[in-house]
Amino acid sequence: MTTPRLNPITTPRHELRAEKARRNKEAALSAFIGKKAEIDEMLARLQALSDDHFNCHPDEVGWAMVGTLEHYASLLKRITDSAFGEGEHAE
Fold first, then answer.
1. What is the model's pLDDT at position 25?
2. Rounded mean pLDDT of 54-67?
3. I need a labelling partner for 87 at 20 to 30 A (CA). Which of 5, 17, 60, 67 fits?
4. Band of residue 60 on the pLDDT scale cut at 50, 70, 90
5. Could you tell me if 16 and 6 are in contact, meaning their C-beta atoms sit under 8 angstroms apart?
6. How far is CA 24 from CA 19, 21, 31, 57, in A?
7. DSSP assignment of the chain, as one string?
């Protein structure tokens, strides 16, 4: 539900600032929820791919696939280090 915009001529400044802050907070919350949904979708896809052994049959495993998984792991490590304050992000 959207509230009508306040009239800047007749509304006191403190009310205008409060309304602007409220709208800004709503927009930030909406953006946060959207980004979280994107991450959740990516994680679900990665988990499904992992569950399927990254589409690699055991007879097809070679060093190229190991290298690919090593690359994926290094990218994920950068994310987890950042998220948990570890590695180069440790305080």
1. 96
2. 94
3. 67
4. very high
5. yes
6. 9, 5, 11, 50
7. -PPPPPPTTTS-HHHHHHHHHHHHHHHHHHHHHHHHHHHHHHHHHHHHHHHTGGG--GGG--HHHHHHHHHHHHHHHHHHHHHHT-GGG--
Q: What is the CA radius of gyration of the chain?
A: 23
Please name the amino acid found at residue 53.
H
Q: Is 69 exposed, middle or buried (0-12, 13-18, 19+ CB in 10 A)?
A: middle
Q: Which structure tokens are listed for 76? A: 């994920």
pLDDT value at 23 more than 60:
yes
Q: Tokens 């409060």 belong to which residue?
A: 18
pLDDT of res. 19: 85
Q: Which band of pLDDT confidence, cut at 50, 70 and 90, is reported for residue 9? A: confident
